[in-house]
Amino acid sequence: MSLHPRNSQLPYPARRLALKACVSSGALLYGFGFSASAWAQQPLAISTAINRAGRLRALSQRTVKAYAQLVLGVEPEQSQDVLTTAQRIVKTYLNELGRAGFSAETAGLLAVCQADADRLAGLVAGAPAASRLSEANKAADQMLASAERLTAAIESRTKGSARIVNIAGRQRMLSQRMAKSFMLAEAGVDAEAMRKQLDTARSEFVLALDSLEAAPVSTPAIKQGLAQVRLQWVVYDIGLNAREKLVARRNVATTSERILEVMDNLTGLYETALRELLGTVSYNEIRFAGLYPAS
């Protein structure tokens, strides 16, 4: 097995150690449902794969949130940036996961998610139209469901040890689902159902945040990240409850992006902690910038 180019420059004893890490990590990922050939071509830590697949859930809801904001005229320039960025990141993550060498069953789930993402992209393309909001929402929820199945399939290979990454990652989706439901209700799209969906997502977010705070997997950075999420949740909750429509729409648009950012950072901390716990090594890992539009 060849080493990553960086490791080829190491002294001989260190090269042996790096090679041993490669072999061990490759065997571990193979046991998680990644093929040996794919490991040689495009290594991907299991926690990273869960994180990437989990982000697709949030991006499905974020896409429709941004589209609804454009229909409502809420911060149109920022909303267009959010929509464009979300669609670009969906493509990036699907391409990356497509190179991960999943088992046939998991690859099939990825293909379904790809098809759902393509359908959603088609519905939000072009000038925003209120007439497409309902259909776009249905497509987003289809993508959410397929991304959920994909994430669960990858997580199942870890026998529960990666659940913390999934829980943290799902909070990103809930942050966007609340905002999406709020904006659709404001636009008059299934208003009663959207308010119920918002209340459900709100309850799930709070319960999961409590669960993360009580979890044994922790570091000083994770504790600090959880404190930031808790603070942002207070601000976000106030925005969701605001009575003046224009102010509420603007506050939800901005605070939903902020809580997504801090929740994504926290999920990354859990991903790193889990990778160290499992002993996996991810060489040549690509870190993607641009999850959020420039402010």
UniProtKB/TrEMBL annotation:
Predominant subcellular localization, coarse grouping: membrane
Q: What InterPro entries is this protein classified in?
A: NarX-like_N
State which residue ranges cross the membrane: none
Q: How does it sit in the membrane?
A: Multi-pass membrane protein
Q: Where in the cell is it found?
A: Membrane
Q: Its GO CC terms?
A: membrane
The question of whether Signal is a record keyword is answered with no
- The record places domain NarX-like N-terminal at 158-237
Cite the Pfam families for this sequence. Answer: PilJ
Keywords for the protein's UniProt record, in alphabetical order: Membrane, Transmembrane, Transmembrane helix
Protein name, per record: NarX-like N-terminal domain-containing protein
Species of the source: Polaromonas naphthalenivorans (strain CJ2)
Q: What is the lineage of its organism?
A: Bacteria, Pseudomonadati, Pseudomonadota, Betaproteobacteria, Burkholderiales
